[in-house]
Amino acid sequence: METDIKGITRREVLAGAGVAAFAAMTKGIAEAVEKGHEHMASTNSNAEVIKTANECVTAGQACIAHCIEMFKAGDTSMGECNESTQVAGKMCGTLAFLALTNSKHLKDLAKICIETCSECEAACKKHEKTIAQCASCAKACRNCIEACKKLAA
Fold first, then answer.
1. Which among 146, 151, 142 has a CA at the least distance from the CA of 45?
2. Which of 25, 69, 86, 105 sits at a 20 to 30 Å CA gap from 47?
3. What would the pLDDT profile of 43-66 be if each residue is shown by its tens digit?
4. Residues 62, 81: contact at Cβ < 8 Å?
5. Which domains does the chain have, with CATH numbers?
């Protein structure tokens, strides 16, 4: 497998771009729900999960961007952080979509998101005192975990 940036494959770069596009799409819909568009707000009771999942994706993207900059500089110390953030971002993007569509699989995915966000939070906590992106990502993960726990209960 050919790599573009030290340790990152083209597939991972494209996957990250896909997550970014998906997050942008779900964020717009989530904003519509929050602003009270009747046709969306009346059919969706998952506004908190949608909001926290999208915040997790957005904070994760900033964290991943920071990791990529470090990789470019030859520092691979953020490898675990990058990997767990990639996974959590993809899961949270899917969570937001399932919440928007009131999927019957939402509670099951929320339980998995608790795990993936917990792993991401743990990885980011190692750097949160010195790297703002990691601090934001860890906080977003904590908020998403709490929303998922409420949903999965």
1. 151
2. 86
3. 568 999 999 999 999 999 999 999
4. no
5. 3-152 (1.20.1270.360)
